[in-house]
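Quick start: what a row looks like.
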Amino acid sequence: MTIDDRAEGLASDLGVDYEEVRDDLETLRAYDVPMEEAVQSLRRKYGDGSGRGEPADVEVADVSTDDSSATVTARVLTVGTRSIRFDGEERVIREGQLADRTGRIDYTAWEDFGFSPGDTVTVGNAGVREWEGEPELNLGEHTSVRFEEEALNVPYEIGGERDLLDLEPGDRGVEVEVLVEEVERRTIDGRDGETEILSGVVADGSGRLPFTDWDPRETIADGESVRIENAYVREFRGVPSVNVSEFSSVETLDREVDAGDAAQRMGIGEAVASGGRYDVELVGNVVSVRDGSGLIQRCSDCGRVIQSGRCRSHGEVDGYDDLRTKAVVDDGTGAVTAVLDDERTADVYGGDLDDAREQAREAMDQEVVADEIRERLVGTAVRVRGHLSVDDFGANVEAIEFEERTDDPADRARELLASVGEVDG
């Protein structure tokens, strides 16, 4: 049964306008809400046929994913603009956050209601949908907006200015001042065919993050300090990524952003709990070296590690030799797997790929290379710097630096105890 058929039946049952019901169904389906769930949501919204009726005003903290619609009076914190593909067509949407004294809530506006950060508005009959487990307001043609004269006091920062360290996936209308540390122009297979983009790394005094510019600009260049307005944040390989769209503005600054060279040092437990960090420094002890370390073989097509000459994507392949280490590092608050590439593995192994091949041939067992690495690493206090991702399979840090710690063990003990609140210094 098509959306038109379901909308016609619902409109008839509930005694409401067919076009209105069809628009609501299309919006819910665009967010991948199952048809039956969408139908039930609209039945709750329109009731038993007595007409819509605007819901009572509620506080932000009381908006629930069980609601079909809500009316809130709130302060506009951020406003972002970007385009999405909807029903095969490009649609421009506005999105950001609203807040009152009780909390914050994300919103998506399918029309331009003229919001600016700092406005106090009463949003009537906004649809409510679930997004990553949290309620989000959807503002469409059936939503009413009234701008209030008296500003609402809220305990949140108004506007999109952020440090990179404070960004989270899902943030919209973001403003950052950053140093472009790395940038490359490349061609990808986008939704409209081959698309040219810029990608790389930006930094400020708080940290570093990857970025993508979907509308390549000459102002984003190696070594340039820029102000980016109206960016949005997505998750990329487990960490936040700054996305610059055609609606973003990029301005070259007349001063250099001081990014510094150091990564943020965190306890492993805190870093893992954050869900992922780009360019983080962790310290701890190597407690084990996992299987799949040492002398390995990779697929010549995709580079994945293969077992017994088989790639999970390409079947039987002719692999090539490589070196890798997967060291489990624990600091007492948590554990991560530090993944070392061939260069860093050669450093801890004490030999290159040819040396590893020779040792494996003499022993007639390639596992001797991993055993050698275990002998050298397990029990060692180390510092690892890299990009941390956390998923259902655990926490992994792609190491860009990995070295044995040479500071006093007593100092490390005091540092650990201080990090868990056991001592004052």
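That is the whole record. The two ends are 69 Å apart (CA to CA). The longest strand covers residues 69-86.
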